[in-house]
Design goal:
Layout (H helix, E strand, L loop, with lengths): L1 H15 L12 H13 L4 H4 L17 H8 L2
């Protein structure tokens, strides 16, 4: 159930995402939002979503931001 919902949310976020040219940014705004939404969807803390073991195998190939990065970037 959560995986299907996440796929729909993923497509919506990618459709709304506007690429920006920020220097020294390792993770896009879409990456931050999707990681945060994964934690919200599962009713877990953000640090849980930053761990690869919390994701299905098909999503584990990418790098995940640190919890501090998510916290800082969500404020902006």
């Amino acid at each position: 159930m959560e995986n299907e919902l996440y796929k729909k949310v993923y497509h919506m976020v990618m459709k709304l995402y506007r690429k920006t040219n920020l220097k020294r940014v390792k993770f896009t705004d879409a990456d931050i939002v999707l990681t945060y939404l994964w934690s919200v969807l599962h009713d877990r803390p953000t640090c849980w979503a930053c761990n690869k073991k919390s994701w299905p195998i098909c999503y584990r190939r990418r790098q995940f931001p640190d919890p501090s990065t998510i916290c800082r970037r969500l404020r902006t």
